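Researcher: Next entry in the queue.
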Amino acid sequence: MGFGDLKSKSGLESLNKFLADRSYIEGYQPSQADTVVFSSLSGAPAKDLVHALRWYNQIKSYSDKDRTGFSGQKKNISTYGPGGDAAPAADDDEDSDDVDLFGSDNEEEDEIRKKRLADYAAKKAKKPGPIAKSSIILDVKPWDDETDMAVLEKCVRSIEEDGLLWKASKLVPVGYGIKKLQINCVVEDDKISTDLLEEQITGFEDYVQSMDIVAFNKV
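Model: Structure for this entry, 219 residues:
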C-alpha cells in the first residue's frame, strides 16, 4: 500500500504519478504528511520525475523548524499515497460544523437545524481563500555561444498566462563563451505548473536547448 520504497525507482515513480495533479501529499497546504514523505527520500528525485521534483523543491524550501510546525499528525509512511488509508485531518472550526447546536426530538426543529447548518456551510464556502503563490528561478540554456540571448529572453518573456508574472533576470556564464539566462517568475500554484513553463519555453527550439528549475519557494 502507499508509495512503496521511496528510495527505489518504482517508489519515486509512484510518488511522481501521485503528485501529477496535487500540490501536496494531503490537502491544499503543507502538512505532516509532506514531512513524513520528504524524510523518507534519500535525496532529490530525478529531473524526469517533474512532479515529484517540483514538490520536493517546494518542501525543501522550508526550514526544519517550519516543517516541524506543519499542521496535522505524523502517520506511518504506508498510509500515504495510492491506496493509503490516511485522510486529511479536519480543522477544529470545521469539526464544529458537525456539532448539533439545535438538537431536538421535534421534527420541525430538526428541519430548522439542518437549514441553518446548510446556510452556514454555503456562506462559509463563498469566502475566498488565500491565493497560493510560488517564486521560481529558472535556468534557460541556449544551444551555443552564437545564440542571441537578447532574443532568447524576449521569447521567454513573451509567454503570457493568467497567474504568471515575470521578474528580474541575468545572464550567467557557463563556460566556452556560453551564457545562460537565469530568470525569476512568480506563479499562482493553481494556474501555472512547471510543466507548462518548460513546454512553452523549450518550444522556442531555435534558441533554447533546455530549461532547469534552480529554486522553488512559496511566496
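Model: Residues 121 and 127 are 10 Å apart (CA to CA).
Researcher: Noted, moving on.
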